Task: inverse folding
């Protein structure tokens, strides 16, 4: 396992990350927590043309068991009122060009029963890797996840 990258050295993302109906608004780099196997992550809000906040997307930089098995490099959440409009797909497309400057391929995970996330990841063209058990010490386990579907998204 490699140590987490130094967040002071992280490049600032461009202000122009957008695709379709969404733009990404960079909020901050969240520090990692090596004790918990967490890596630093870029946190963005997903914003619609009318200024509505539809959710968030994170880009985790680093390679730990937590990233590879549970969280993935890319994670997103769309607020309930905005679901069903492909905003997660558009946010992933918006962030892809910039993520490509750091990685050629990333891991994306989802719970097996999360059909919306599965459709989003598969629509991106990510390749299914496997289903992996969530370790009992991982926060995803404490939230009820027992397995994760893992995908490789070549950017």
Result:
């Amino acid at each position: 396992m490699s140590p987490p990258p130094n967040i002071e050295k992280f490049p600032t993302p461009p202000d122009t990350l957008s695709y379709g109906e969404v733009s990404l608004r960079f909020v901050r780099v969240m520090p990692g927590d090596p004790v918990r196997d967490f890596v630093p992550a870029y946190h963005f809000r997903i914003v619609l043309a009318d200024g509505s906040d539809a959710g968030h997307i994170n880009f985790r930089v680093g390679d730990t068991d937590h990233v590879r098995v549970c969280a993935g490099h890319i994670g997103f959440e769309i607020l309930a009122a905005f679901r069903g409009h492909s905003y997660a797909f558009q946010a992933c497309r918006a962030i892809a060009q910039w993520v490509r400057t750091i990685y050629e391929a990333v891991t994306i995970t989802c719970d097996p029963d999360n059909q919306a996330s599965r459709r989003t990841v598969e629509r991106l063209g990510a390749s299914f890797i496997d289903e992996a058990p969530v370790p009992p010490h991982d926060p995803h386990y404490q939230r009820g996840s027992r397995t994760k579907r893992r995908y490789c998204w070549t950017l």
The helical segments are 65-71, 87-99, 115-123, 139-142. Strands lie at 18-19, 22-30, 41-48, 53-60, 74-78, 105-110, 127-133, 147-154.
